[in-house]
User: Fold this.
Amino acid sequence: MSERLHGQETEVYQSNRFEKALGKLPEQLQQRGEDEIDRILDNPELGEQKKGDLSYLRVHKFKLNNQLTLLGYSWVDNKIELYLLNLESHEIK
Assistant:
């Protein structure tokens, strides 16, 4: 998947796990997930940066079908590549 970001080509790589998780969602929710990816492309620092050994990872939190959903991603700044690692829902307690 390629996107244009600030006049530059952005390569989006999806892990198999992420692709399967997104593919299992109903079409409307898939579109919502893709909208959140677009938000990350517009602002790669949108997600919360993890600490320590996971400092390369950011997690973007959003609601999907009334469930808190975490989208883990990282990117290579100089190439402007976004690596989508996982899409996972968390129950709100």
Notes: Residues 7 and 68 are 32 Å apart (CA to CA). Residues 2-90 form a domain with the YaeB-like fold fold (CATH 3.30.2310.20). The chain has a mean pLDDT of 79. Helices lie at 16-23, 27-42.
